[in-house]
Amino acid sequence: MKLSHRSVGLAALALTVSLGLSACAEDEDSSANDTAETPAATPTPMEDDSTAPAADAAFGPACDQLPAEGDGSAATMADQPVATAAAGNPLLTTLVSAIQEAGLVDTLNSAEALTVFAPTDDAFAKIPEKDLNALLADKEALTEVLTHHVVGAEAGPDAIAGDHETLNGTTVTVEGSGEDWTVDEAAIVCGNIDTANAKVYVIDTVLMP
């Protein structure tokens, strides 16, 4: 039996529509699968606007005076108890002599955890020579001054602000933000130096109890 031209045309049109609908359905399924398989975008973390220095990095304008390696370097000091570590630091030669004169080397080295505000050589040089020599010769007075610079707990940059009781029973007050900090009347010129048993903050003025 022969099909009329109209019947052939209608059949062709039906086939075209059927194929078109099938293709659309496949495209929709593909789009749906793509959407389901695409992981959600990871939110961009907000920038930390904290003003505290990094907890694992030394900070301050005098830090570049530390040796890059060997005695007095950050890496070497981190492995040594605090009095031994200070002995290799070129900023702290007068302080080290004072610690030895006061007989505090073993006390500091054997402590479990300390925070030490360490005056530089230039800080000691601010004291008139006659007065400094008298202080170094008076073990009791020297011990009082030195222990006024030591706190019996380790305080990193996130905990350094505020009032701290010293080993001398006195109090020092730390204020500031970012890399600008003071301890009473002294400025921290290189802070957050790690030693095996202490955090060291190098300061530009000797603190008097």
Automatic annotation (TrEMBL):
Residues 26-74 are annotated as: Disordered. Residues 1-25 form the signal peptide. Pfam families: Fasciclin (PF02469). It comes from the Bacteria. It comes from Nocardioides malaquae. Keywords: Signal. InterPro entries: Adhesion/Biosynth-related, FAS1_dom_sf, FAS1_domain. Residues 35-64 have a biased composition (Low complexity). Residues 79-207 form the FAS1 domain. This is Fasciclin domain-containing protein.
